[in-house]
Every structure is written in structure tokens, then in C-alpha cells.
Amino acid sequence: MAQASPDWVRCTQPVDGVERLEAWFGGKAYAMHRHDTYAIGATLAGVQNFRYRRSLRNGLPGNVMVLHPDEPHDGQAGTEQGFGYRMVYVEPALVQQALGGRPLPFLESGISADPRLVAATQALLRQAGHAIDPLEQHGAIAEVARALAAVAGMPMRARKGDFAAACRARDYLRASIDRHVGLADLEAAAGRDRWSLSHDFRMFFGTSPYRYLTMRRLDAARGMLLGGFPLAHAAIATGFADQSHLTRHFLKAYGQTPGRWLRYMREAGMHGLHTNVQYGPGWQA
Questions:
Q1: Fewer Cβ atoms within 10 A, N terminus or C terminus of the chain?
Q2: Which keywords does the record carry (predicted)?
Q3: Which residues neighbour 9 within 8 Å (Cβ) at sequence distance 6 or greater?
């Protein structure tokens, strides 16, 4: 019988109230313990057993685990093959702020297969070695908070948006595709706090500020590529860290690498590209 892979753990330093972890265990992983944060995770391979609220739960690939702050739990492999998983630890105050001060959402079972929650956790549950832009992390927390509230059955509170503030934020992002955009900078430009602005932006433009900025950068990069600029040059000029960073986002947005897309465009005789397309809900990945 083949032996399970050796145990290993990789984790990140906490950044703005969020810490990420990725691990593999062949047997017993954790004794009973509890966090003062939300522990939100996904089993990537195998079966993860854990005792939670007086019952044994099974974390399987395709599900999301949501452990409420201060709830005791343990963790171990459910089969001899071991299990691999990723987890993100989020300070409860961030979830409450994203929900406008409402009570913290609670999922009794500790496990959910709800597609809203599965989709909302994708950005935070990436490999621990992949850095997350603070603007992206903020938007991802807001998405997770809303999904938690929906899955927990909390009634949504009607909130009015500030269209003018959202427009100021949009204009600032459009003018900032070639430089880093910080949350404080965006708040100052919009004249609106980050959590309210996140809500306003999605209400009026159908996406998060981070996603909007990424798509505008990709618009500009496509124009540069059609203009004959090298991929590496286009990446730096449009605010990406390097060409692999641009390629990763390009593939996620369009389903093709920049090289393949450019070949198709040239074969079709396209030599220019408008970059002022308005972003809407239909463009979301």
C-alpha cells in the first residue's frame, strides 16, 4: 500500500486582517482548538474530517468549510491517502464592516456546497505563494461576506448607493492603469469609505473596483499588443508586475493567452483596438 505524502504547511504573514494557509496531512493534523477569526477553506484532495459543534464533518473537494470565530474544532485525514487543503483566516470585524455593521453570519453545518460561496472564496483561496493585491483582497472579502450572509439566510438590508462617489472612483481608476492603486487613495478620490464604495461600485457598474481596474489594464494591453509592443513592455506600461502576471489575468478574462489572441487578431486583419469599452455584468469571469 502506498504511503501518504509527508506532511507540510505553507502560510502567509497576516495582511490587513487576513492570513492564508495551504497544507497537506497524512493523518492527524490538529487537536481541538479554536480561532478568534473566521476560518474559511476548501479541501483540494482527499477527505478532511473535523469535529465541529458536536458532530463529525467531512470536508470534500468542491465544498467550502466555514468555521465561525471561537468555535472549537480539530482536523485529520478521513482516508489513508491523506488530504490537502487551503484555508483563509479573516478577522470578524472585516466581515461585519463589509455588511454594514450587521451581525456576523453563522453556518451551523460548517460546510457548504452553495455555488455563491464557492465562487466568492476563489480569490482568497489561491496558493499561499501567490500574493494578493490589497485592492483585490478588499473586494474578495466583501464578496465572501455577502455570500456568507446569503447562504446563512440573513435578510438583505436595502442600502442606497452614492452614484457620484462611484463615478469619481471609476474615473480615478481609469486614470491609474499604469500605477499602483491603494485603498486609501481610492477612498480619497471617491470621498467615500472603502466598504460603502465597494457596495456602490458593484451596484452601479456590476463589478468590483479591482476587477474594473484589471479589465481596463487588459484593454490597454491589448491595444499595445496590436500596436506591435512586446508583451513584457505592455505588461509594465499597463500596471502589471510582469508579463506572467499579465498573461495570468489575460487568460482568466479571455480564455486565451496573449500570444494566441494576438495571432487570431492579426489573421483577422485587426490592427487597432478601442479601449473605452464600458464594463458591465456580462463581462464578469
A1: N
A2: DNA-binding, Transcription, Transcription regulation
A3: 21, 22, 23
Partners of 57 in beta bridges: 50
For the chain, list residues with pLDDT below 50: 1-2, 271-285
Exposure class string for 250-259: b at 16+ Cβ within 10 A, else e: beebeeeebe
149-192 pLDDT, tens digit per residue, is 999 998 876 667 888 999 999 999 999 999 999 999 999 999 99
Q: Edge-to-edge, what's the strand order for the sheet holding 28-33?
A: 28-33, 73-77, 48-52, 55-59
**Cβ(148)–Cβ(95) under 8 Å?**
yes
Helix residue ranges per DSSP H, 35-160: 92-98, 115-120, 134-151
Amino acid at the residue 24 = W
CA distance 238 to 198: 23
Domains in the chain, please, with CATH? 8-151 (2.60.120.10), 161-285 (1.10.10.60)
pTM, rounded to two decimals: 0.72
Backbone CA torsion sign across 268, 273, 278, 283: positive
DSSP string, 77-102: ESSTT-EEEEEEEE-HHHHHHHTTTP
| Three cell numbers, residue 239 | 500596471
Distance from C-alpha of 1 to C-alpha of 210, rounded to nearest angstrom: 48
**Cβ proximity of 107 and 151 under 8 Å:** yes
The CA-atom distances, in angstroms, between 145 and each of 101, 113, 150, 277 are 11, 16, 9, 30
Task: Round to whole Å and give the CA distance between 124 and 120.
Answer: 8
| Calpha distance 243→169 (Å, rounded) | 27
Largest CA distance in the chain: 65
